[in-house]
Amino acid sequence: MLSRYIILILLILPIATILKQKAPYAAAEVTVESAVEEEEDDVQVEDTPSAAEQAESSLTEQEEEDDDEKPLKPSPDGDTYMLFVEPKNFKSKLPAGKEVRFLVGFTNRGEKEFILDTIDASFRYPMDFSFYIQNYSTIGYTKVVKPKQQATLFYSFLVTESLSNRPFGLSVNLMYRDADGHPYLDAVFNETVEIIEVDEGLDGETFFLYVFLAACAVDGETFFLYVFLAACAVLLVVLGQQFMSSLGKKKPAASKQKVEMGTQNSSDVDYDWLPKETLVLNRSPKRSPRQSPRQRRVKRGTGSSGEE
User: What fold, for 78-196?
Assistant: First the structure.
């Protein structure tokens, strides 16, 4: 009986010792966890903004988004106009493979300066102008336009031949800003134009195509003969054109070099401003006609006899 109690005590004693050793660690863990939770609560309380601050920040973000999404418009103090230089007499048609030139004018009707920054041009799908077909270079100018003054900008681009015989939307935009830095965008030209193919008459490719078709229509023996004759005909036409152009150019006549000869004719001199006394004194006596020595002797002899 006693041995059983001893065995029971030996079993309970180690368990009680182990539990006693773990109790401080558990209490420490509970203390640490409670402290961490209190710190997190404090941090959350400190980081949580007030309702007024949240409303102000949301309004600021909304205003910034509205400013970013708001499209740029032209200034009421600026007037723009556009003039096509090439092609002349523009009527909503542009030639394919040719250079297009135009002028963009700007008038400042306000009291502040405007800075004309850039001009860009693009071809767009005529049914939807937000769809770009071809973009052209953006050229920077940075030209200052003072109040009540005007400025003109030049822009040019080359129409691709692959766009011929089709309509496209041509968009030309002028980007500028005022003295305070507010940006403006003016669509100077935003219309649908038609790209046409220029008919330049009979070119060399078409001529040789006709010659080749004519040669194919005859026998093979005369094919090379026709080709040779066609080449000779083209060569003669080119030489004749050059000869006619050389004859048409008139050589400028060699202009005589003008040499100042002074006043040779007395009628070209104006003596009205001189006094009459000066004119009488400076007038040279008339020279007698030349006489031969024989006539002089006769005259002298006549004079001497008369004196006697």
Answer: Immunoglobulin-like (2.60.40)
